[in-house]
Amino acid sequence: xxxxxxxxxxxxxxxxxxxxxxxxxxxxxxxxxxxxxxxxxxxxxxxxxxxxxxxxxxxxxxxxxxxxxxxxxxxxxxxxxxxxxxxxxxxxxxxxxxxxxxxxxxxxxxxxxxxxxxxxxxxxxxxxxxxxxxxxxxxxxxxxxxxxxxxxxxxxxxxxxxxxxxxxxxxxxxxxxxxxxxxxxxxxxxxxxxxxxxxxxxxxxxxxxxxxxxxxxxxxxxxxxxxxxxxxxxxxxxxxxxxxxxxxxxxxxxxxxxxxxxxxxxxxxxxxxx
Length: 274
Fold this sequence. Notes:
The chain has eleven helices and eight strands. The protein is of the alpha+beta class and 274 residues long. The protein folds into two domains: 4-68, Alpha-Beta Plaits (2-Layer Sandwich); 91-253, NADH Oxidase (3-Layer(aba) Sandwich), CATH 3.40.109. A four-stranded antiparallel beta sheet has the order 5-6-8-7, sandwiched between helices. Helix 5 packs across helix 9, helix 6 crosses helix 8 (163-171) and helix 6 crosses helix 10. The two termini are 46 Å apart.
């Protein structure tokens, strides 16, 4: 079966599919049907642009079944005012209710995050979801162990990361590593893949934004991620697949408090060259 086929009866031969193809693997001439270009089978990144852009649903991609691609619903699109409000209302949540997060909601959250952009549509992000309180506490303690090493061996770096204060707060009974979050979501990928870091970062960013729609909140676990990148005991505890690395971690849970205002941010410095 060819990579894609075109319905001759409904195709309006406008060449839009060829125009949007990132790899230019759709050959088209004015008034003719689009066809796979030479090498299309190997070069196609399965992004689905050709299927999504066709106004008459005439292009059928072998690996992206048309019946699994619902139509865009204009009534659900965000307007500029709604979008700005949604983005400004996002908060990094560091205080959580003592309420477990349903597995179904977490699965739904990751399902939304899988549609985040990734370089050449690599979709290389893998997920580790940890929701056991004792395990999360144990992992946080490992981060403190790493911080203690940093404090002893790299004091200048420790000062910049406020390591000593963090350790003191931990021993005083305050969890400043994972903030008592009921869930930690780790995004990991093949560390040799050139798109791994950006793929996981974008996917986690998307996940955090999507969390709001499910009544959840999130916050980047920066200390945890820093330790997971270099500290062998924590890496062993995570048990990621061979060759994989943690490229980001997100605390997730039900926010303990509601936020009622939209704080300001610094005016962005922009150099216009248009």
